């Protein structure tokens, strides 16, 4: 709850959805379990990243995006700076997902 944007309800939902953190060997595995990774389409030498996957914990993905929206609005925080940097290059919606992934790690 020390992270900007995470309150009691958000923390409780994340703990309930994720369960034991030791089940995931790395942050990337946790991101995959939550569905915060892109779909990958690969055929021969062509490689395409799609939208984020529909698999994973839907409530956890939803609450992380809500927390990201709140964290992006907090004044004088590193998370807001990260969001603004990403927003310039990839847009608002993708920057929110990037911030959600950063928060879950």
Automatic annotation (TrEMBL):
Q: List, alphabetically, the InterPro entries matched.
A: Transpos_IS110 (IPR047650), Transposase_20 (IPR003346)
Per the record, the GO terms for biological process are: DNA transposition
Q: Which residues form the Transposase IS116/IS110/IS902 C-terminal domain?
A: 1-83
Gene Ontology molecular function:
DNA binding; transposase activity
Record PANTHER family: TRANSPOSASE (PTHR33055:SF13), TRANSPOSASE FOR INSERTION SEQUENCE ELEMENT IS1111A (PTHR33055)
> Would you tell me the protein name for this molecule?
Mobile element protein
Q: Which organism is it from?
A: Methanosarcina barkeri MS
């Amino acid at each position: 709850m020390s992270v900007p944007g995470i309150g009691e309800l958000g923390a409780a939902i994340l703990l309930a959805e994720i369960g034991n953190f030791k089940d995931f060997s790395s942050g990337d595995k946790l991101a995959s379990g939550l569905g915060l990774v892109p779909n990958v389409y690969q055929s021969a030498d062509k490689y395409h990243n799609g939208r984020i996957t529909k698999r994973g914990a839907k409530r956890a993905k939803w609450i992380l995006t809500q927390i990201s929206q709140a964290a992006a609005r907090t004044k004088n925080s590193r998370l807001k700076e990260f969001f603004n940097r990403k927003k310039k290059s990839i847009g608002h919606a993708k920057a929110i997902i990037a911030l959600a992934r950063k928060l879950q790690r």
